[in-house]
Amino acid sequence: MASFTSLIDHIATTLQNNAPLTSFCDAKWGKALSVLKAFKQRIEINLNDLPVILITRPSLEKNFLVNITRDGAHTVRLYAGFHQTDWAKALNEMVEFEEKIDDALLTDYTRGGLAINTIPKSSVNDEGEFHPVYFIVMEVEIKHRR
């Protein structure tokens, strides 16, 4: 199989081009979704950049089978943020945003044949700590063979 970088590109393209997800962003926040491959500690997000999904790959669990395959369980982390001045709307929008992202990821769990599987894992949110900006962090495990 190809390098894992192809999978990261595929995830970015999937999220950027998913009609229900992009329509949701347009309807709720009147702005197009931005999808960026970045390190969370090395990027500055402005209000104009929201809504945004940052894609990172913080870890890899390797499994080598002698002279046969190199399997990996890659943890991909998605940082999804939006701007909402009305705190009463934020929770519902956060839940819906997360659901739309999950739905987009699971439209093709093999990522065009590049992955063995895509498995959404845990997610946490910022509990409104940085109102009027809200962020969710979602972990996705992607099984990949090189």
Provide an overview of this structure.
- The protein has 146 residues and is α+β, with helices and mostly antiparallel strands.
- The protein has one domain (4-145): Phage minor tail protein U (Alpha-Beta Plaits), CATH 3.30.70.
- It is built from 3 helices and 5 strands; from the N terminus they run H-H-E-E-E-H-E-E.
- The protein has a 5-stranded mixed β-sheet.
- Helix 2 (19-29) runs antiparallel to helix 3.
- The longest helix has 19 residues, at 87-105.
The N- and C-terminal alpha carbons lie at a distance of 5 Å
Structural class: alpha+beta
Percent of sequence in beta strands: 35-45%
Main beta sheet: 5 strands, mixed
What percent of residues adopt helix (DSSP H or I)? 25-40%
The top level CATH class name:
Alpha Beta
Give me the CATH fold name: Alpha-Beta Plaits
Which word captures the global form? Answer: elongated
Mean pLDDT level: 88
State the CATH architecture: 2-Layer Sandwich
Low-confidence segments, given as residue ranges, are none
Order of SSEs: HHEEEHEE
Strand elements, count: 5
Structural domains: how many: 1
Question: Can you count the helices?
Answer: 3
Which sequence of strands runs across the widest sheet? 1-2-3-5-4
- Rg, Å, rounded: 16 Å
CATH homologous superfamily identity: Phage minor tail protein U
